[in-house]
Amino acid sequence: MTREEAIQLYREHILPEVPKRYEQEGRIDKPARAEAWNNFTDALCKDGQITLKQYETWEHP
Questions:
Q1: What pLDDT shows up at residue 10?
Q2: Cα angle at 30 between 26 and 34, to 5 degrees?
Q3: Cβ 19 vs Cβ 41: under 8 Å
Q4: How crowded is residue 44: how many other Cβ atoms within 10 Å of its Cβ?
Q5: Is 21 helix (H, G, I), strand (E, B) or coil?
Q6: Cα 32 versus chain centre, distance
Q7: Cys-Cys crosslink for 22: which of 2, 13, 29, 49, Cβ 3.0 to 4.6 Å?
């Protein structure tokens, strides 16, 4: 999987849930978004969809 593909999946499936759970009154919760990205890429790595190097080097979009 490429980084671009991962970002697309993150934006479509993971990111929409962050505001529902962590953001109030239109305030963006950057740590929550970064944590969601880290959890997402960790799951991709553990599932073998990305390499450990990809997981360790991809920064939050």
A1: 98
A2: 135
A3: no
A4: 20
A5: helix
A6: 10
A7: 29
Which runs of E-coded beta strand occur in 1-60?
Answer: none
The predicted-structure confidence for 8-46, as pLDDT tens digits, reads as follows 999 999 999 999 988 888 899 999 999 999 999 999 999
Q: What's residue 15's pLDDT?
A: 95
Mark out the alpha helices in the chain (DSSP H runs): 3-9, 17-22, 30-46, 52-57
Amino acid at 20: K
Start-to-end CA span in the chain (Å): 16
Give residue limits of the domains in the chain. Answer: 3-57
Cα separation, 3 vs 55, in Å, equals: 10
DSSP 49: S
What's phi and psi for 51, nearest 5 deg? Answer: -85, 165
Helix (H) / strand (E) element for 54: namely helix 52-57
